[in-house]
Amino acid sequence: MSKLERSFYSKVSMYSFFVVLILVLSIWIGTGQFTHIDLMLFGYLIASFVFAIGITIRMCSWALRPATHQVLKRSFANMKKKTHAKRNLISILRTAFENIFLQKFIFKRGIYRGITHWLIAWGCIGSFAITFGLVFGWMHFKLVDPHTYQIIVMDIPTLKMPAHGILAELIYNGLNITAMMVLIGVTMALIRRSKSQDVKVTQRVEFDLLPLYVLLAVTVTGLVLTLSYKFLGGFLHPQLSLIHQITVVMFLVYFPFGKLFHLPIRPLATAVPMDYQGQIQRDTRACKRCSTLYSDDDQIEDVKAILGVQSFDLQLADGTYLADYCPACRRRLRVMKQLNMENDKGNPYGPIQTMNDVQVPGFGRKRSESYYEEKRGDEND
Amino acid sequence: MNKIMYLEFERCIGCRACQAACRECGDHDAKERNFVEYVDFMESRQTYPMLCMQCKDPACARVCPANAIQITDDGVVLSAMEEKCIGCRNCTFGCPFGIPKFDFEENKMYKCDMCYDRSQHDIAPMCASVCPSEAIRFIDFDEMQALRRQRSQMNLVEGKKPTEQDKWQYVPEFFGVYTSDE
């Protein structure tokens, strides 16, 4: 592997190369040795390659971060463990269903936000599936007889359907349906972002609003295209399709570098139940000081490792690490240190001790004369 | 932003006005992000206010596997970005000061952002604006330096720390008088 790696400029370029290679191969298979390439989609094809390379580069640089690397390392190690198999499977299925498909946690933040996000997310993922399927030639339609269409997936003939059946109509209008989902979602999101004073606090135009505008451009131009050929007899269709193509290319090129990049990193959420929570949301590790349960042994080990790699020295004099204490004890440790109160304070019925960095004025005692003599002598030298 | 958050733990009277104010801040969702706790309940009723230190190189951001914790141009460490946060809670364990809080239900981490909508315009954060005993202050850098100097002048004598036995020996006769060019 390392030998292969050295024949490339970098690891990232190696991965990008293989991604492109696999895509070209899949096109070759899907289009029946390049016999079914749809040249109308050539612009999309180029943009999709840029998209794939961009995602690869961003994923690689993300996985290189010490924190991400550590979590990924533990996740892959756990995946290989046979004793962990059941927990792994449950974690993956649970995360895929609750966290990624239903997006329960966003609905908990608010029904409006949940619906908004769900519509945008599944509209986008659906559109991606259809777009890439067609652009890379992974699927295409074949007319078997004048009344029957057949879907060919990866050059393998599959489902046959009547050309004007309900299923066929649903499939033809797949992109329209997903576009409507995105359009409704994006409109809801833009309303929230322009109305709510709360989100404006940390919202940035180029980060939070730009992706919404890009999505809006893509969906509106796409739907106008449908409007044109369905109801206006193809009015301005070539120009409109070119405009739509431009917006989609912009979207695909933008995707790996903006806010939308949170989509490919989301599956890492599986690592949480898989590595750190034997039982969901149940802590097992006890704090060194107050014995409150606050975390999981593996997780604290990981946190220490990540901090260690990045030269954070959070070890105390007694050899324990700050991560060994629960957050409440960590706060208290800091305050007691700052107030100089770490040590035992002796007799609680004795006089109040003021060893807390602030000396109450007014108790000064004059020093012996010799002290001042010495000091004056120094100045004269 | 050239203002400083200045905390004096021993001024805290434990009224928790800062927490009530924090809940009122925009985008805080009626949950407080600061702490008021007893230093050592068995010893005294002394409380302390606790906020985020807004580290230059925050450990919470460094241990985040999703790269969700961002720092603004003026150095405020923000809560984890909701779209990136995967809910692992590494930040709450990495933070040396135990500041980040985590909401399992909504799967999001939230921490003191110095009321960014206010402090970015040099307006005091909610907690500092309500603290009745000036345990939390939002002051100019120069004012902070003066206060610091005063504090160290009050207890620093020739680089030595007094011990319990001879602390009275070390208290200088004059306080707050700068005598270098005597």
Please give a structural write-up.
The complex is a heterodimer of chains A (381) and B (182). Chain A is mainly α and 381 residues long. Chain A has helices at residues 2-6, 11-30, 42-64, 66-80, 85-101, 104-109, 111-135, 166-172, 174-195, 205-231, 237-254, 262-265, 271-276, 297-309, 327-338, 369-380; strands at 139-145, 148-153, 156-162, 285-286, 293-295. A 3-stranded antiparallel sheet of chain A has the order 1-2-3, with no helix packed on it. A two-stranded antiparallel ribbon of chain A has the order 4-5. The longest helix of chain A is centred in the middle third of the chain and has 27 residues, at 205-231. The model of chain A is unreliable at 357-364 (pLDDT under 50). With 182 residues, chain B is of the alpha+beta class. Chain B has a domain at 54-111: Alpha-Beta Plaits (2-Layer Sandwich). Chain B is 25% helix and 13% strand. Chain B contains 7 helices and 6 strands. Chain B has helices at 17-24, 59-62, 90-94, 116-119, 126-130, 141-155, 167-170, and strands at 3-7, 35-38, 47-50, 101-103, 108-110, 136-140. In chain B, a hairpin with a 4-residue loop joins β4 (101-103) and β5. The longest helix of chain B has 15 residues, at 141-155. The radius of gyration of chain B is 19 Å and the shape is globular. The relative contact order of chain B is 0.19. Chain B: GO terms for molecular function: 4 iron, 4 sulfur cluster binding; metal ion binding. Chain B: Residues 3-33, 43-74, 76-105 form the 4Fe-4S ferredoxin-type domain. Chain B: It comes from Halobacillus andaensis. Chain B: Keywords: 4Fe-4S, Electron transport, Iron, Iron-sulfur, Metal-binding, Repeat, Transport.
Broad structural category of chain A: mainly alpha
Q: State the name of the first-level CATH class of one domain in chain B.
A: Alpha Beta
Task: Give the spatial strand order of the biggest sheet of chain B.
Answer: 1-6
How large is the radius of gyration of chain B? 19 Å
Shape of chain B: globular
Terminal residue distance of chain B: 37 Å
Percent strand of chain A: 5-15%
- Helical content of chain A stands at 55-70%
Helix content of chain B: 10-25%
Element order, helices and strands of chain B? Answer: EHEEHHEEHHEHH
Largest sheet of chain B: 2 strands, antiparallel
Protein name (chain B): Formate dehydrogenase
Keywords (chain B): 4Fe-4S, Electron transport, Iron, Iron-sulfur, Metal-binding, Repeat, Transport
GO molecular function (chain B): 4 iron, 4 sulfur cluster binding; metal ion binding
Organism (chain B): Halobacillus andaensis
